[in-house]
User: Which sequence fits this backbone?
């Protein structure tokens, strides 16, 4: 248990659906991240929030929309996804942007 | 090419040592990490090394850093079946942490 909780653990959605992934940490960390993990590919950094402000957006399609309402919560809103978006989505947090990240267990997303 | 590279597979026998290698490209990285991912789980930090260090030892784990060659390795002594997992190498600078594709370690009895 790393202190970073993601819900749901599994999600199956159609291409026309809208859903949201949730990440929560009560570790007092200032930075939160969304990563995408696809098979046999490096972890892809999607978004970085530092002190609730988005500091990085790595050319992620607009069908992925992050939200950080406070320092403990991070959301990833999904709409009109494609089958190739099926992957494990990992949330992480760190005390600052340059220290080790603590990961949640991930949400396994399947787009049908 | 990718920023962080590692071989995809490694297979060892129980009791042997495992060495997982990683190369990275950003010489200004400040921290380098090894993460372990077991099936169905997120990534767990195993160990990390600051870029001005050459070696770090933590029980069965030894991390070696060759900054000149931008090469990082993780040695697991007396590898056990419970060490079977995917091991990710990562480098970080500022808010950016970049991972390799992961090395799947299989430990055979």
Assistant:
């Amino acid at each position: 248990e790393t202190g970073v909780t993601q819900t749901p653990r599994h999600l199956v959605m159609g291409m026309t659906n809208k859903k949201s992934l949730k990440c929560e940490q009560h570790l007092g960390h200032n930075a939160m991240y969304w990563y995408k993990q696809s098979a046999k590919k490096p972890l892809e950094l999607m978004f970085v929030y530092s002190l609730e402000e988005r500091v990085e957006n790595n050319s992620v399609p607009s069908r992925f929309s992050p939200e950080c309402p406070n320092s403990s919560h991070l959301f990833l809103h999904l709409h009109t996804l494609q089958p190739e978006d099926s992957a494990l989505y990992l949330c992480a947090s760190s005390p600052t942007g340059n220290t080790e990240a603590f990961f949640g267990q991930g949400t396994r997303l399947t787009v049908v | 090419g990718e920023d962080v590279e590692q071989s995809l597979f490694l297979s060892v026998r129980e009791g042997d040592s495992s060495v997982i290698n990683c190369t990275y490209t950003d010489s200004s990285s400040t921290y380098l990490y090894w993460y372990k991912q077991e099936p169905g789980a997120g990534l767990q930090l195993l160990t990390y090394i600051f870029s001005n260090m050459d070696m770090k030892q933590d029980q069965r784990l030894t991390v070696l850093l060759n900054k000149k060659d931008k090469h990082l390795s993780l040695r697991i002594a007396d590898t056990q079946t419970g060490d079977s997992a995917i091991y990710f190498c990562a480098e970080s600078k500022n808010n950016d942490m970049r991972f390799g594709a992961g090395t799947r370690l299989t430990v055979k009895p």
Observations:
- The first strand of chain A starts at residue 4 and ends at 7.
- The mean pLDDT of chain A is 89.
- Chain A touches chain B through 27 residues (CB under 8 Å).
